[in-house]
Design goal:
It is built from twelve helices and 15 strands. By secondary structure, it is an alpha/beta fold.
Length: 370
């Protein structure tokens, strides 16, 4: 893989152009994608994080200041040192935004953007019960945020109600979907018929898909699962017939592009915490032109019904029946999303909150080869 040529096309004129800090518990794929899109718009950005979840993607963001924190106190110090106009806080750990923006904080005059990933409790909209201290911390974050970014229409509708004038707020959420990275399609390997699943797996609880994988294999649809911690999961999944492995991001994209279908299924234990998810892998499958098989995921189903690219089933039994009989032809995808359009309302919000402008053309990523 070539890292590509990265150029800084704009210099930040002190006092005129806005400066942002992104702070997060873990640098995940969504964080990387948003920062790339923002930097292309000329937004100067620094990352403050506890850990990096996708080290093989970091270089895509170009030259960037990068700090690690151990606790809230150190996080506050590192962010304060940057003197940002915008503090862009990703949704975990809960309570961090409220600490950074409290009246006693040197950052109290900064503008705070809360970026909701699909792991926030959404307790008012689901039957998932979080610990009381987590709910309280999230509520404080919501209250202090000057703007809120959400990843799907379910989240948009939920937070539109939470932040309505009737509840004493006037914060319309900003919808930013987790689109695929803007890069050439990876060169495919030899086709390997079957179903691709990628993402978290567990040996019990909400992502234990052993029973489902076994059924799919028995009806002639072997599952190829790509999951973090694959070695520790192998003993649980081996007798399901599932082929289990772990890959870094670019190799993962190459591997999943070999398969016939991409599986996006709801939590196996019925938990509704991720009810509103519109996950990274959905847009990755679209970018790789792999038909998607789904049920029990409302936002995924709605997007497919609107724009094609997959098969939406009523439930697991219906999906198994479809696979057991005959797959119908998928409707061709008709709606291309772009990061330029997706990130525009975020840039506009930054400008509205700070009274400053972006630096215009930012980083350009040339000849990135997967």
């Amino acid at each position: 893989m070539g890292a590509g040529r990265i150029q800084i096309m704009a210099q930040n004129e002190k006092g005129r152009y806005m400066k942002s800090v992104h702070i997060t518990d873990i640098v995940c794929v969504r964080v990387v994608k948003e920062i790339i899109a923002l930097r292309k718009e000329g937004i100067e950005t620094t990352i403050v994080c506890a850990q990096v979840g996708v080290p093989d993607l970091i270089h895509l963001m170009g030259p960037i200041r990068f700090y690690r924190f151990r606790d809230f106190e150190q996080a506050a110090f590192l962010v304060t040192e940057e003197k940002p106009d915008i503090v862009h806080v990703h949704s975990e750990p809960a309570g961090l935004l409220a600490v950074l923006g409290c009246e006693q904080s040197p950052l109290r005059k900064a503008k705070f953007v809360l970026d909701i990933h699909d792991s926030v409790t959404l307790s008012s909209a689901t039957d998932w019960i979080a610990k009381e201290d987590t709910l309280k911390a999230e509520a404080e974050d919501f209250k202090r945020a000057d703007a809120v970014i959400v990843p799907s229409e379910t989240y948009f509708k939920t937070f539109s109600k939470i932040f309505s004038p009737e509840n004493g707020y006037n914060k319309k959420p900003i919808l930013v979907r987790s689109l695929a990275l803007d890069m050439p399609k990876p060169k495919s390997l030899t086709k390997l018929p079957g179903i691709a699943y990628w993402g978290g797996l567990t040996i019990d609880g909400w992502r234990d898909y052993k029973r489902l994988f076994t059924i799919l294999g028995d009806i002639g649809w072997p599952v190829y699962a790509y999951a973090p911690g694959a070695e520790g999961l192998r003993s649980h999944y081996d007798d399901s017939g599932c082929v289990l492995r772990h890959c870094e991001y670019f190799d993962l994209m190459r591997q999943v592009s070999r398969h016939s279908l991409a599986l996006i299924a709801p939590p196996s234990d019925g938990c509704k915490r991720w009810l509103g998810a519109l996950p990274n892998k959905y847009f990755e499958a679209i970018a790789l032109k792999i038909p998607i098989l789904t049920w029990g995921c409302p936002d995924v189903a709605l997007d497919i019904q609107r724009y094609g690219g997959g098969i939406v089933c009523a439930d697991e039994s219906s999906a198994i029946d479809v696979l057991r009989t005959r797959l119908t032809e998928c409707k061709a995808r008709t709606k291309p999303y772009t990061w330029a359009r997706e990130i525009e309302p975020v840039v506009n919000t930054y400008q509205r909150l700070t009274g400053k402008i972006s630096a215009g053309v930012g980083i350009t990523l040339d000849t990135i080869k997967a």
